Amino acid sequence: MAIRYELQKQCPHTGARAGLLHTPHGTYETPMFMPVGTQATVKTLAPEELKAMGSQVILSNTYHLFLRPGADLVEEAGGLHKFMNWDQAILTDSGGFQVFSLGKLRKITEEGVNFRSHLDGSKKFLSPEVATKVQEQLGSDIMMAFDECIPYPADHRYADASTARTTRWAERCQEVRRSKNQGMFGIVQGGMYKDLRERSAKELVDMDFEGYSIGGLSVGEPHDLMYEVLEYTTPLLPTNKARYLMGVGTADCLVEGVARGVDMFDCVYPTRVARNGMAMTWKGRLNLRNASFMRDWGPIEEGCGCYACQNYSRAYIRHLYKAEEILAFRLVSYHNLYFLLEFMRQMRKAILEDRFVAFREEFWQYFTK
Amino acid sequence: MAIRYELQKQCPHTGARAGLLHTPHGTYETPMFMPVGTQATVKTLAPEELKAMGSQVILSNTYHLFLRPGADLVEEAGGLHKFMNWDQAILTDSGGFQVFSLGKLRKITEEGVNFRSHLDGSKKFLSPEVATKVQEQLGSDIMMAFDECIPYPADHRYADASTARTTRWAERCQEVRRSKNQGMFGIVQGGMYKDLRERSAKELVDMDFEGYSIGGLSVGEPHDLMYEVLEYTTPLLPTNKARYLMGVGTADCLVEGVARGVDMFDCVYPTRVARNGMAMTWKGRLNLRNASFMRDWGPIEEGCGCYACQNYSRAYIRHLYKAEEILAFRLVSYHNLYFLLEFMRQMRKAILEDRFVAFREEFWQYFTK
Predict the structure, then answer these.
(1) Neighbours of B206 (CB within 10 A)
(2) What average pLDDT does range B178-192 have in this prediction?
(3) What are the pLDDT digits (tens) for A40-84?
(4) Selected catalytic residue, list B147, B266, B296, B354
(5) Residues facing A242 on adjacent strands
(6) From CA A220, how far away is CA B148, in angstroms rounded?
(7) CA separation for the pair B320, B309 (Å, rounded)
């Protein structure tokens, strides 16, 4: 099996667990956060920087690469790893989330989704078969089954029909996949409905994927609702497979996701907000463009071991933002990703040392949303 | 003396020379090209990258830093080196070139230049005294005397008066400078007039600066005219001082400048064109956005030892440009600066090995403007 999850430690008080994810491009520690390289690059950063900060797996987007530069071209390059100069693991999403975000530009049928490219308006088609083929051409280590991400809110009837279709699509993905060097995760949908999540999980587990994603969360619902859905969904999944909560990347959601049994996360949040001047810290966010940092000679966060904090002051970084210099984006993207990776490392350590509950309590003592 | 030039080798057939520049932040090899960090950062790059490519001295702009973040703030940071995390040498210009480029937004008097900030329209004033003070606050290793950069074309009467004023301003700079850890170069002006260049050089040499810049070139005149002016200007300068041709950064001008006795160059060209997709090579420029590179799996330039060429294909870099990803700017900025630095290293080696004439001939055989 291309992808294997190894459970190392289960927290006795919560769902939190520490493990290892074995992939064709190395073994990685969970819980983990995966930086997002939407267009075959993690915005503003080079692969060596991602490695230096301890990034182990990155995510790239099937939808974006399908449209540009195209899966054929990436395949011709020797696959995505070679194309983008990244020799560690890559997870690709299914394209479903982006396609469904297109709104009126797409039309769903049982066969798949017809849509218009956001780049040039040209007609495109994605389906379980196409999404699987594209991901095999990209050569990611972990593929996602093609799914529909149900919007929030959605009524039960819509969620029911959509979830049933996602299951049928998952079957079609399993049928057509050929690559032996790539794992595939099924994506549990079901909206905010427990009965649908249960059905979705059961049906996907029966198909025996190499791991399971929890989709359709972090789509605008309140955090408490997301936590509630997680709470009853992760126990439906096998303990010997990795669980991946898609699109979540703030410290508060990570610690609460881990507490509910999630192993993997991804989000554009840390790099996106970095480009707007926002730094992530253990105490919450800082807007580095603020005048209050004009003569602040300290690092972004005291005690942080990242390249930006080791070498630059808040005052300098604020200057770079005001001067619209790219180095600002680089430094704060670096810091934010380092922060999340370090956060996950410390969380993992706490789980292994049987003190996750204390870690979580201490986190909430200092953190402000 | 804070700055000392050591002549190592004089080409017997041309003006080309190899030497060492001793500064408070290290000893550097000439001829050299200095990357430009206009706003206290070389656009898109980090200091470690500049060091890795062999950059020895960088330039930063007095005008820009004077306006933002302000010299007081940089001084409070401990000087420009500390502010921007660069521990090798820094050269600052005088602010003259930028101020005079403002056109109607500035007014020149004997005292100095009143102008409006291009950032917020506020009234500002630069003079020999202010420019010297600002550069002392920045703490650059090499300061420039405050000068007027004469536009091209300019009639003899205007050039004559302006050049005479630049001399008077240079005297005022010498009078007010206090720092013992910073050298200052006088800037030879005179437009395209031999008699004025001769007078300017003589007057500045009499003031015994630590080095001499040749200003007012690369301002729109034909290359042949620039070469002609250089040809009669550098012999007017002492052989035991460095000569710096301001604002020149293409391979053809560098080799011809060196042939005429220039030791130092700077220009935003390599980083500016990089952001537009233009790569510099030994054969001339390449527009990496071109469709012809879509499936080109070779490096920007075969045989190039730079980070970009060692790790990425033209096809990938083209994809990054099309996708408007910052890594494109980083990779090609890196390549272009590496190219110029390597070009200077090879030129220096040729001078030291008495084969500069052959180097120059071979260069012109392959290079296309």
Answers:
(1) 11
(2) 97
(3) 999 999 999 999 999 999 999 999 999 999 999 999 999 999 999
(4) B266
(5) A211
(6) 59
(7) 15
